[in-house]
Design goal:
By secondary structure, the protein is an alpha+beta fold.
Length: 740
């Protein structure tokens, strides 16, 4: 090639030759989507997408338009160099690699070796003008910068990959790109029509949850089991909970469909806000693992007290930072990589790093996680007495923050923390926001710990902590409520998290056990929250846990039956990738094309923050919980057409297992089955439904008419049935709706 003759396109001069060589072939921005994925076609790019065109105008007045298509005349540079599978590297698929080598006509593209060069056969015509056009519906644009003409093509690659400017898009190219896309992505509805039945491993003898009724329910079974077991294996013998699974692959946050095998992105760290995973382990009967995780977490939290660290001349109480087992990671590492902080040496002298990085949301969720492990184990007073220092320290830290705003930057009676949930235009120097997400978790964490010490007979301390929780609650209501709704400008991660967080403390009977004020605020906020980003797609991609799952939990707890049915189906679509490694594992984030109905993995596969929230969502669907007075409640919320069957499901707070089965009502009728395995019986409240709003709900238990209270919640009527459960007896509950 005559590269020495290349010239910039923006200074183009009419020329002629048999071949036109163009340099560039990338896109700006050079990424497959915005960071953390997208549900918008305008900023998401897939191999096979048209992103613009090269228009050649000839001296004779004729024109040729060469489409710029990813995988053909356009390619990704950064991520193809980083993430090779399945086209090269240890997980190469030879057939796919061969297809891409045939379709990608950019020299250097397959090797990720710039500069990329495209060769066009222009049949010797004189070119008067070259235009590089962007696709109007897309953000950004293709980049071609230089050109030269030649009468020969001696390069081996380009001679085999020359694009005919008169016939620029052969059918063979579009067919091959279709095959590549089929291998990388999941297509709706094709990939969800027939889904294989998920089979539990031979010899597995623990809790089994099977959803059935349609393909999405079948997927949910695999998602529940595979992610449950992956979380189980993330907890080491010493209790450390790894954020990434060992040698987990990564699709990168702004990638385009290829992945990096064995990326191991966050395996070395335990991230604090993900204590939902520990709660899930306890609720599912993995008590030894959960208890070890609590012990490990508490030991990390006590670091600041153990090291006798000071700030402003005052001792710093124990607290959790963003990385649980690396308390100084943010203040001593990420600060120097540009992480925003108010804790500067100019302001605090030699003590400026001593607070670590207080993660206000992680602190609260750690407390709720520990509380749930305690409750699942029977609410032991002995545990509280033996671990009182570790229980008191996180509460003391919250009070310390509120009482020392000059050191903690507390404002409006609320907690400040330099956490991902508080990011607010950091690039513009705007700093961190005080968020609902973190403050609600801490408010309820203190309330939960108050309950723990009250169980141990420490009434005065319990009242003191309850008052601290109410102090935070009052500030939450004053600062985060605007015109009768939650202020979504200060929510933290993506959505109103009030009801999902409250359910981690109070259980799933949201209309009864969550305060009416909280419930009403979320109900009134819901339409705005839905319209913000999720909208008609019913897909939240920006972190599956923070986006899709938190919103889905709110829809469930508000009994928005039609919405949560769609949202749960879409959660299954996001998680199910039948042609990719580990097809049921929750991705960290995703991209979704509404126009093409394509789902694509993004980020760290099985990232614990998002895995834990997906498990939290499915546990909300099942709905087994315990109130603080020991009452067991079963509040299932099944999507339309689904059935759930749970075997050996631990009863919260009791030394017992329960088998549960029920389906979504059909033709105004519903059947449920209950069988208890344990030493003692108890009273249980079962909520049946959903039924049409105008219905009066009635029921029988084992053929005998029983009491049933009808109530309207969300979009439906439900029946509340109180019953005594005796070990070993099978209960069949039939419920029906009589229209008034």
């Amino acid at each position: 090639m005559e590269e020495q003759n290349r010239r910039p396109i923006d200074g183009f001069e009419p020329s002629a030759g048999r071949y036109l060589y163009l340099y560039g072939g990338v896109y700006s921005p050079d990424k497959g989507c915005p960071d953390w994925g997208s549900n918008r076609d305008e900023d998401t790019y897939f191999p096979g997408d048209r992103a613009g065109s090269i228009v050649l105008t000839y001296a004779c007045g004729a024109q040729d338009e060469i489409p710029l298509i990813f995988g053909y005349t356009l390619w990704f540079a950064k991520h193809f160099a980083d993430c090779g599978a399945p086209f090269y590297g240890e997980e190469t698929d030879e057939a796919l690699a061969s297809l891409l080598e045939q379709t990608l006509c950019l020299k250097g593209g397959f090797e990720a070796a710039p500069p990329y060069v495209l060769c066009l056969n222009i049949h010797g015509e004189q070119v008067r003008k070259i235009e590089i056009n962007s696709e109007p519906s897309k953000q950004g644009g293709p980049v071609y910068t230089h050109y030269f003409f030649s009468d020969s093509c001696t390069d081996d690659f380009l001679s085999a990959h020359t694009v005919d400017a008169h016939k620029p898009l052969p059918l063979s190219i579009t067919t091959a790109l279709g095959e590549i896309s089929h291998a990388l992505f999941t297509f709706d509805p094709q990939d969800y029509i027939t889904v294989p039945r998920f089979e539990f491993p031979a010899g597995y003898d623990g809790v089994r949850v099977r959803f059935s009724g349609n393909a999405f329910a079948d997927i949910a079974t695999g998602v529940f089991f595979e992610n449950m077991m992956q979380i189980y294996h993330k907890i080491d013998a010493d209790g450390k909970v790894h954020e990434s699974s060992y040698m987990a692959p990564s699709w990168r946050y702004d990638g385009f469909g290829t992945w990096r095998p064995g990326a191991n992105s966050y395996y070395a760290q335990m991230w604090t806000r993900n204590h939902h995973s520990v709660s899930a382990m306890a609720r599912l009967g993995f008590t030894e693992k959960a208890s070890k995780a609590v012990q490990y977490s508490n030991n990390c939290m006590m670091y600041f007290k153990r090291e006798k660290l000071m700030l402003g001349g005052k001792p710093i109480p124990g607290h959790w930072t963003a990385v649980c087992d690396d308390p100084m990671y943010y203040s001593k590492v990420l600060q120097y990589a540009g992480w925003y902080t108010k804790y500067t040496q100019e302001r605090f002298g030699e003590e400026f790093q001593n607070l670590g990085n207080f993660e206000v949301d992680g602190h609260g969720f750690a407390m709720l996680g520990i509380y749930n492990v305690w409750k699942s184990g029977g609410s032991s007073a002995e545990y509280v007495l033996e671990h009182l220092e570790e229980i008191a320290e996180p509460v003391n830290f919250i009070k310390w923050c509120l009482d020392n705003p000059d050191l903690s930057f507390s404002e409006h009676g609320l907690l400040y923390g330099e956490t991902e949930a508080g990011l607010a235009d950091i690039s513009l120097g705007a700093g961190m926001k005080i968020t609902m997400y973190g403050n609600i978790a801490c408010c309820l964490g203190v309330r939960a710990y108050s309950e723990m010490v009250r169980t141990a007979g420490m009434e005065e301390l319990a009242d003191c902590w309850l008052e601290l929780s109410r102090r935070l609650e009052k500030s939450i209501m004053e600062y985060f409520v605007k015109e009768g709704k939650w202020d979504l400008n200060n929510r933290g991660f993506y959505h109103d998290s009030a009801l999902p967080t409250y359910s981690d403390y109070a259980g799933y009977d949201s209309a009864h056990d969550i305060p009416e004020q909280w419930y009403g605020l979320s109900e009134r906020t819901y339409p705005s929250d839905l319209a913000d980003y999720i909208g008609d797609t019913m897909v939240g991609t920006r972190g599956i846990g923070y986006d899709h799952c938190i919103f889905t939990q709110t829809a469930l707890l508000l009994d928005k039956v039609q919405d949560y049915s769609r949202l749960l189906e879409n959660l299954c679509k996001i998680c199910y990738s039948p042609r990719l490694p580990q097809p049921y594992i929750v991705p960290e984030c995703a991209s979704y094309s509404p126009e093409k109905s394509i789902f694509r993995r993004q980020g760290d596969l099985g990232n614990l923050a998002h895995q834990a929230e997906a498990m939290h969502t499915l546990l909300t669907v099942i709905g087994l919980c315990e109130r603080e007075n020991g009452l067991i409640k079963w509040i299932p919320r099944l999507p339309e057409g689904w059935t759930v069957k749970a075997e050996k499901l631990p009863v919260p707070g009791k030394d017992a297992y329960i088998n549960l089965e029920c389906g979504f009502p059909e033709h105004g009728e519903q059947t449920a089955h209950i069988r208890l395995e344990g030493a003692e019986g108890f009273e249980m409240l079962f909520r049946a439904g959903p039924f049409d709003k105008g219905a009066q709900v009635q029921c029988s238990i084992n053929g005998k008419q029983a009491g049933c209270v009808t109530e309207v919640c969300g979009q439906a009527a439900w029946g509340r049935i109180s019953m005594d459960i005796v070990p070993g007896e099978q209960y069949m509950i039939k419920v029906w709706a009589d229209l008034k």
